[in-house]
Amino acid sequence: MNAPAPEDFTAGRPVVFRNGIVITVDTPGVLHDADVLVVGDTIEAVGPKLAVPEGTLEIDASGGILMPGMVDTHRHMWQTALRGYGGDWALSQYFVFYYLQHGEVFRPEDIYAGNLLSALESVDTGVTTTLDWSHALRTPEYADAALQAFEEIPGRFVLGYGNYLGAPWEWTADPAFRSWIQNFKHSDHLGLQIAFDVPDSEDFPELAAFQYARDNGIRVTTHAGVWGATTDNGISHMYDAGVMTDQITYVHAASLSPDSYHKIAATGGTVSVATESEQSAGQGYPSTWEIRKYGIPASLSMDTSVWWSADYFSAMRATLSSDRSRDHLEAHRKGETVNVNRMRAEDAIWMATMGGAKSLGMESSIGSITPGKKADLLLIKNDQSPAMTPILNPTAHVVYQAGTADIHTVVVGGRVVKYEGTRIGMDLAPVRDVVAKSVEYVRGKLGEQAWEEGMHPPLNPDEPIENPYQYTEDD
């Protein structure tokens, strides 16, 4: 088999992956020594020794794992230009920095810079579909800047239009916003949702925003079950008003009551779990261990690179580990031992693929390696990596052994955008320059003192516990 060169991947030319381990996330499950044929933007066939059209490019998948492209259902992409800035934050520092102090200094070009870097990173790391929870769109000009980034990166994106500096019942009624929505051009590679939250209140002013979304056939994504911020009170308002449907995704949902989980399950909602966020920022314990009791489908998300990485292998690993950890702790409280882990590696992969597709209402077109679906694919293969041999349990290998350095090929809608570990036509240098200018501007607007103080929140030292076994000279 002669390996293709990057320039060989021209539009419309069929591509076949040969002799790989294929995780279909669908029937028939995991296939060994199997092929996947891509024709146009579609998965044409899956199986051993496939016959292919003349001129088909062949990618050697032997020694590798082919799986669906991953789906992130909640990423604040515009914040990626400040990657790692808030690595030591608690949730309160995040709220203060963006919501109360410095979020308003961001210009449309800063939204563009963060989105451009995040979009490139998504594709590079095998996340072929990303929902941009874009809650800094103060005017349609900001939204245009967000979309401009998506036009330049060959991934699949959903814009979650939000504006945290305004009330959702007000900005969804603004004529400029409504005109922008009416002119939005949906495509196979670009979708739209509305992103806003329902904080605790005695009344329910957010009802108007939900009604607007319903009347216009737009899905809603909302942060729910965030400790001390969006609680059961908001869920009760939503349910009583009849706006809880299968068109709603509840992000985190980490600190809700059984009654709220029942309401989400009964109305067909989905949950986006951002495990590293919930563990570090304190929204509540990552909810997969709880929501399975209610039959609520879960997807995965990485939240924001101002704190955490966009490494989706890490997201799967953290989610599986946190779920098992909680099961063990609950058993230990009862004096019992867990003998069989309830959450499996294949469940984490399902959440990262089909779970995400379902959350976005795209399960009929992406999320699994199924003939007729869009060809969004990820080949994990690295012949020089000790972690990639042997491959005995493919699903566990993806979650606990593989990493971003092992991404060999990424395909989005039939287009090969990364091959042999190298992106095709997506140079980092111009993106890096755009981000550097944005960082320089934001840092200058904040001032050096505020910049440093924002990055390093003060810490009150813990009082040490007196050690009764410590000797003194008198002893």
Task: Describe the overall structure.
There is one protein chain. This protein has 475 residues and is of the alpha/beta class. Helix content is 35%, strand content 20%. The protein has 15 helices and 17 strands. Strands 1, 2, 3, 4, 5, 14, 15, 16 and 17 form a 9-stranded mixed beta sheet that branches. Strands 6-7-8-9-10-11-12-13 form an 8-stranded parallel beta sheet. Strand 9 (190-195), helix 6 (207-215) and strand 10 (219-224) form a beta-alpha-beta unit. Helix 7 packs parallel to helix 8 (258-266). The longest helix has 22 residues, at 312-333.
- What is the helix content? 25-40%
Rg from Cα: 23 Å
Helix- and strand-based class?
alpha/beta
Strand percentage: 15-25%
What best-fitting shape do the alpha-carbon axes yield?
Answer: globular
Q: Report the sheet with the most strands, covering strand number, pairing sense and barrel closure.
A: 9 strands, mixed
| Number of E strands | 17
Taking all residues together, what is the mean pLDDT? 96
Poorly predicted sequence stretches spanning 5 or more consecutive residues: none
Report the end-to-end length measured between terminal Cα atoms. 79 Å
Individual helix count: 15
